[in-house]
Amino acid sequence: MFATRSFLLLSLIALVLGKPTARNMKLHESREGIPDGFSLRGAAQPDRTLKLRLALVQSNVAELERKLMDVSTPSSANYGKHLSKAEVEQLVAPTQNSVDAVNAWLKENDINAKTISATGDWLSFEVPVSKANYLFDADFSVYMHDETGTEAVRTLSYSVPAELQGHLDLVHPTITFPNPRGLLPVFSAPIKAEAQNLTSRATIPSSCASTITPACLQAIYNIPLTRATKSSNKLAVTGYIEQYANQADLKTFLTRFRTDISSSTSFTLQTLDGGSNSQNSSEAGVEANLDTQYTVGLATGVPVNFLSVGEDNQDGGLQGFLDTVNYISKMDTPPNVITTSYGQNENTMSSNLAINLCNAYAQLGARGVSILFASGDGGVSGSQSSSCSKFVPTFPSGCPFMTSVGATQGFSPETAAEFSAGGFSNYFAIPDYQTSAVSGYIKALGSTNSGRYNATGRGFPDIATQGANFEIVLGGRFGTVDGTSCSSPTLASIISLLNDRLIAAGKSPLGFLNPFLYSHTGASALNDITSGSNPGCGTNGFPAKAGWDPVTGLGTPDFNKLLKAVGL
Ligand SMILES: *[C@@H]1O[C@H](CO)[C@@H](O)[C@H](O)[C@H]1NC(C)=O
Ligand SMILES: *[C@@H]1O[C@H](CO)[C@@H](O)[C@H](O)[C@H]1NC(C)=O
Ligand SMILES: *[C@@H]1O[C@H](CO)[C@@H](O)[C@H](O)[C@H]1NC(C)=O
């Protein structure tokens, strides 16, 4: 009934708005069906306002990619010679032709758009559903995420006028669906917290077998306790979905686990899209507390920024990823390391959008920023455990221009954590730096899982750290959490401490890590993880094996070996 009524309404509106001249519309993007977990609730009200964003085609992405690899590959003469903001912007700014074509189209359709990125490649504007349907030959409808009740107005396909082809990259939100659950880890409390002696890290405290604390990570990965010295070397932690990082909890955490540093050590708050950071103890967020406690508490002396991204963003349920990357790209001196423990299944996103965001990470990488994301917590079934037949890769882990962090557990031996998401992208082809590592794995794997994963896709994760039984403080209580959400901040701390030493020695920060990690020197500085697997989709998932594997990547870090590997 709903569908019939909406059809009539839409036809009427098309008559009113339709121009008499035949339009030459070209299908631009479509998806095969509604993503798992969502259902169609009916047509969207024609007068409902849609906040849309439009990306223009960037001018020279191939050259950006070439330069990114050039400055990130240790054997290159230009290794570490990162690009300036202006150099990157010049490479990717849309051409005047594209700007003119899109402006002419906006004018013709009476659309008042606002530029929202530094290079003018992203615009935003508001139109009623009826006009959006007309402009893009779309069918914007109301979809609901059944489990959380989250509602989204989306279309399963859209077209653009032929004259915009090659100029307009994508319209969002259209076929990309939101990820209402994020990757949030589950907090279990209370547990018996044991204070540990903090003077020596030579041996791994036996308590690390049941709970992981900073002392455990320092011992397992040889992370130094000495203070970093470079105040310019910032580590940024992103926070979404009203996850607040609680200062009092951080203090309790440091008082218990870092008696060697001031318990008042904290982070600096940055906000965007109306983000805030409530200090009401009952609103402390598991993810935000975990991420700040394991950066401030591990990256000793490194200035940590907590970037709280609010709900005012208009980026269509992408959790603010788009706004975050535009915000950081506009900074003259961005943080050297950014860690994000959120993500979503790749198949919920438009491939154009995934590629666009991935290129934004390449831009930051070219400027010397290390972009780290947690790989996800559903093993081969994606960001979170779900039923599936084919394996589900996660975003942005499939993007070749960032570093995806998986999880391990235990230390004798250190083993893959079974929730550690890993696999192969369906959107991004395998990058050169990874081909030999991945083909070695696929060969060793034989026919296991064949047909369930894309053997030509970018493999992930790249690296792993401990990710189970992390002890945190939440609302004044001690408890533990599991997830690759634990791993990304841990790695971010290690990379930040390496950057501090590099900068002190007059060298560049590491920037985009992967070409280094996959080099012989980089891989040799990691502990290869060869046991465990990441079950899902009714299978045992991928087994960890010697060398790279899609559960633990190349392995886990060893700070002392990494110091040598980076030439210190
Ligand atoms: C910490 O060190 C003290 C003195 O060296 C010792 O008595 C105590 O047992 C140690 N505690 C732990 C948990 O190792
Ligand atoms: C703290 O948050 C809780 C839950 O949101 C709320 O009920 C309470 O009133 C808040 N307390 C203060 C002091 O704002
Ligand atoms: C597999 O990955 C390749 C490379 O990214 C891609 O072109 C292809 O479409 C993918 N296949 C499927 C079935 O998704």
Query: How widely separated are the two ends?
Result: 70 Å
CATH topology of the domain at 229-565: Rossmann fold
Strand content: 15-25%
Number of helices: 15
User: Can you tell me the CATH architecture of the domain at 229-565?
Assistant: 3-Layer(aba) Sandwich
Helix-strand category? alpha/beta
State the major sheet. Answer: 8 strands, mixed
**Which ligands are bound?**
2-acetamido-2-deoxy-beta-D-glucopyranose
Mean pLDDT: 91
Q: What radius of gyration results from the CA coordinates?
A: 24 Å
Number of beta strands: 26
Binding site for Ca(2+): 528-529, 547, 549
GO molecular function: metal ion binding; serine-type endopeptidase activity; tripeptidyl-peptidase activity
Signal peptide: 1-18
Catalytic activity: Release of an N-terminal tripeptide from a polypeptide
